[in-house]
Amino acid sequence: MRRAFALPALFLAALLFAAGSAADPGAGKSSKTKGKGNRLTFTVVTTDNGSCGSPWATDTLTRTFQVKDNGNGTFRLTRKDRGTFLTLGGVSPGACDTTGKHGATVRTGVRGKVVGYLRGTITGGTFNPNATCTGPTCGFTDVFIATHFGAAAQFSCFADSRDCGFNYNYTAPAQQLRYRHWQNKGKGAGTFLKEEFHGDVADA
Asked: In the 8-state DSSP scheme, what is residue 140?
């Protein structure tokens, strides 16, 4: 998913995710936070980048952060996203995939659904489930971590690490598309990133 995450390097430069994918989680806005304890949910609107590293859709997501105390001073953070996307027009999300079958372009206004997750480990912080965050970026991963774990907290998906995993799937009903399903998944982050693309959401 190159997006909603804002990870270093590519996707990670992307998601990533977005944070978004690999993605750019910092592009967009979030609101409506709810939840207590180790599950907190936000509504996030963010631009999604495809395999070419360029924006291809706007995502509107229900984003839930799940926190698990590992009992050794670290925490397992899972970010789950579910929602819809609306294409911006131009290159398709799978256009730059070098391994499989895919298209090249997608028109403006194609609608579909997206579901996925990003998972890694937080070190150097202490979880405060009752931390307060206000403003349009509270649902972005970097803002969530700084708010709920402290400014010194580090996330393995934002560093050179093998300890990161993500999987995002995008599907669209017919709409006269040639390809209607795109998957962006991978393991690792930064120099250890191994990312895979499958399919596409494309007219041609």
From this structure: S
